[in-house]
Amino acid sequence: MQYAFSSEVGQxxxxxxxxxxxxxxxxxxxxPVVPPAPERVAGFLEAAxxxxxxxxxxxxxxxRVITAEKAAINCVMAGCRPEYLPVVIAVLQAMAEPAFFFHxxxxxxxxxxxxxxxxxxxxxxxxxxxxxxxxxxGNRANATIGRAVRLIIIxxxxxxxxxxxxSTQGHPGKYSxxxxxxEETSPWEPLNAExxxxxxxxxTVFAAESPHGIQNHVSxxxxxxxxxxxREMASVGGFSTGQSALVLAPEHANIIAKSGxxxxxxxxxxxxxxxxxxxxxxxxGKIEGQIEPGDELALFHRGLxxxxxxxxxxxGAAGGHSAFLPSWxxxxxxxxxxxxxxxxxxxQPLVAIQKHPLEGxxxx
Amino acid sequence: xxxxxxxxxxxxxxxxxxxxPRLATLDGATLGFLSxxxxxxxxxxxxxxxxxxxxxxxxxxxxxxxxSAGANCPTETMDALTSRVDAVVTAxxx
Lengths: 364, 94
Fold this sequence. Notes:
The complex is a heterodimer of chains A (364) and B (94).
Chain A: E1 9-12, H1 15-24, H2 38-48, E2 55-59, E3 64-67, H3 68-78, H4 85-95, H5 102-107, E4 113-119, H6 122-125, H7 140-155, E5 178-180, H8 191-194, E6 202-208, E7 212-215, H9 222-233, E8 244-248, H10 250-257, H11 263-273, E9 275-277, H12 278-283, E10 299-301, E11 309-313, E12 321-326, E13 337-340
Parallel strand pairs in A: 4-5, 8-11
Antiparallel strand pairs in A: 2-3, 4-6, 6-13, 7-12, 8-12, 9-10
Chain B: E1 3-6, E2 30-35, H1 39-55, E3 60-65, H2 75-82, E4 87-91
Parallel strand pairs in B: 2-3, 2-4
């Protein structure tokens, strides 16, 4: 199919010159990219049934429009296969929801990455990794879907590192932080079912700090294990009332579930135990002021409700290694969002995951 | 082997804007102060308000906050503020 692209067409004399040109212009994440040849970009759009001019999302804070053409170009550059484009588009649609705060989350000194969880049959269709080394290298879809989102953030949303992206440190997840949930191994309902989209292909997106490892190979007791996890969720450096994500290894999930714990009970227990007193937060300088009467008994939880914890099961079958990902924000400046994949183009209706649309949001 | 490529960059849409007319003096003026809601923006605006109040005979000062530093100031907030003031001082703090 012939497409009329609006993007400028350029040429480089050979593959090395092409890589140098793209790097010098600041169009990459520092790694080599696949040349976005017009015919390759056209193939991506054709596979997704999109026109180049289709508007995927608008970012009002920056007066930026993300079109299907630019999304496809950056997907090609990231090394995606054409069938990944609808996943990337769903991620962008999720990020465009007001409570995600697209602009703040890609520019703040907090340096977040877009933690992407894919649910539904598409995980298998795309051969995504939900198992061994789930956060690590080796899987094309996991690696390039997240990378494509990063390249779009740089090239289309304008969050060029050091220019508009003012991350104090950032973290390695900013190259890609995309996993699939291991729905088959999980003892509980997966994310999409939890939010009323059972069996649907979905992405859940959360602006996340770097993963904190939780290793526990000793306890076979659910309460002990959950207390250990809750203590990590209350690690004082990353502590805030913001939302968070917990990726339980299958081994940990099964120790907890075999004693009859439901997903809701797990989240409630973690919410109740991942806390600090106001007095302690003042001692650590996390909040201002002198310790006053009542501060020792005033509790701050990780989040405002158990539903502020995104609980996912993924990882290799062997090993007691789970991960906790806090919100990047010092308060509640971004809320996770879920979207179904393949509803194109334009905004989709919100799903139940947006339970607390704008309440309690402070500053990043 | 020549490589042909499409430019991956999307520039921002540019909207024309112009500066508001300057006030000849702040004496007798009602000043608005718009915070981006960060703690140090409030502090900066507080000091600025104190300094301006010491230098000029201001009629009144009205303080407003953006809902979040990460989003545009809602049009309603800006309209409500600009309808009551002669000038607005805003600050970005962190």
